[in-house]
Amino acid sequence: MTSIKLAVIPGDGIGQEVVPEALKVLAAAGPAIGADVKFEQTQYDLGAERYLATGEVLPDSVLAEIRAQDAILLGAVGGKPGDPNLPPGILERGLLLKLRFELDHYVNLRPSKLFPGAASPLARYQGEGAGDIDFVVVREGTEGPYTGNGGSIRVGTPAEVATEVSLNTAFGVERVVRDAFARAQKRRKKLTLVHKTNVIVNAGKIWTRLVAEVGAEFPDVAVDYQHVDAMMIHLVANPSQFDVIVTDNLFGDIITDLAAAVTGGIGLAASGNVNPDRTTPSMFEPVHGSAPDIAGQQKADPTAAIGSVALMLDHLGYAEAAAAVDAAIIADLNERDGAPRRTSEVGDAIAARVAG
Amino acid sequence: MTSIKLAVIPGDGIGQEVVPEALKVLAAAGPAIGADVKFEQTQYDLGAERYLATGEVLPDSVLAEIRAQDAILLGAVGGKPGDPNLPPGILERGLLLKLRFELDHYVNLRPSKLFPGAASPLARYQGEGAGDIDFVVVREGTEGPYTGNGGSIRVGTPAEVATEVSLNTAFGVERVVRDAFARAQKRRKKLTLVHKTNVIVNAGKIWTRLVAEVGAEFPDVAVDYQHVDAMMIHLVANPSQFDVIVTDNLFGDIITDLAAAVTGGIGLAASGNVNPDRTTPSMFEPVHGSAPDIAGQQKADPTAAIGSVALMLDHLGYAEAAAAVDAAIIADLNERDGAPRRTSEVGDAIAARVAG
Ligand SMILES: CC(C)[C@H](C(=O)O)[C@@H](O)C(=O)O
Ligand SMILES: CC(C)[C@H](C(=O)O)[C@@H](O)C(=O)O
After folding, report:
1. pTM
2. In CATH, B1-105+282-356 is 3.40.718.10
């Protein structure tokens, strides 16, 4: 009997609606995973609701418990925009990013696919003969402008100065670049570095150097480079050209939302915060947020959360079960006709396909 | 007789092809500008070609001369991508950004319009009944991660660390925010701040505070906020909701390329690097680069350069002539049928419409 300890953090808003559907599909995948594998789930109540009620974001004891799990499934965290009791950054820095940093999730994995039947807003992907979009963004998860390194002086005065420091280390860049090359080698053997080397020069140099150096170990992978601003144009005009994209934390945040937008929406975008060294539990979550405006109405699309389960199964070594979940998602998408379905209906439909 | 001293920097690649067309249209606009106004043009040979030939980027003497002009029209600068003799940043930091910083171009003005006839790649803007896109991005031009404040230690070793500092001052943020509010007040009275306040917390706070404070002086302007990643989705799904967007230097760089992409391409996107205090010459340039791959073939679209002339005329106080140029661009776009035209043919056609 293999027992896998799974931390479940539904979070806030639609996170609480999509996570049950993801777990439904995980249960349905049981036979594909193997009769001898059991997921022991522990729910953790974290997010805006807990913070507003108790002032707690991520108590050390909870972090210690989560650290002892094998994997984490997260829904979404975040309260009502502009809530004066919830200043921006409290939950993001204190919970989401804290988990990514503490658990050293240095590979933030974000696949983008134009699924058959998914509604891309791009005219060229309407109707028959649409090209294929199938790439994965390997976003660095522990450095760059995300380290919270900065400060302010003379706050609130006309002489205020606020700084933010982007930190880029050879240690941090090399490991994520190596992971990206390894993924490219198993795919279509193309890697694109995205940065802004012509302006953000120091950080640009370390990324450029390490892509060249690590790339020498992967001579069969073709390498190219795009500025982050030019990527806006490429992702809209010709997203099918990309295979694996490697980039820093902030640029990755931005381009993966655009990738989600052009492939049919944020409701489909799954992600993994992965520690490839497996010394800590990796965390899987939909790219979308808690969407308080539609929360509690069973309107949210749980597909991204379910896709995150597929990424988790793949990471845990159950490639076949992961493929079964992905196939069920695609089959479900193929049958969507635009008629609204309840969150639980989508979960039921995909779970039924996985089960059989 | 009013004499306006105009510095002309064609630059590299297609910059050398689109600038003559822009000047053609400026000449055609003569009567609309006024018989008593003369543009005294001085050409400055700057860019990759000059750097590769002489090692010079922007000699102090040239900068001093340019500073004494009334306005600057720039084509594009940049050599072949990956040219080992032209490391990334040399021209960008040494010429383009140097001009923006030295001349204190704190408002980087980038209007986005879906012109009738322009080919948006978005399905919802195909055919009849298309919504209107008409917004302007007011991008901060002298601060943020663009100041070149950073460095590297242990370069080339596994212990290398590279930093980049984003600098945000109340002085710098307030003035650009005030400019954006003033523009919104003359338009549809809506201002959207774009930032990443949930992660880039210190910088986010100074932007948020100053938008609130300056906004109190403009009670008739409605204010909202979007994270830069969420903007990717909004600009693809519903760009017509925006009126004036104010944002920092890097986020502005990124979202204006996406704005150009969704409104029919970078060949149409004009920009102004403006010093609203008029203590230095403002600089007008197409958003596109030097495009060495199509340079010298008369394939480039000069519309963005011509649109930059309209922005320049407006800045110089010739609103009617600016409107005439804009109207000629729209009329020309309306008649485009997708058949390729030479760069000079487009310039001739627009100039003819302006003339008469
Ligand atoms: C919520 C926020 C901290 C987060 C990020 O910026 O990484 C989100 O946008 C994401 O992409 O997962
Ligand atoms: C070339 C580069 C320095 C510049 C920028 O980043 O501002 C360009 O992308 C732009 O948008 O004008």
Report:
1. 0.97
2. yes
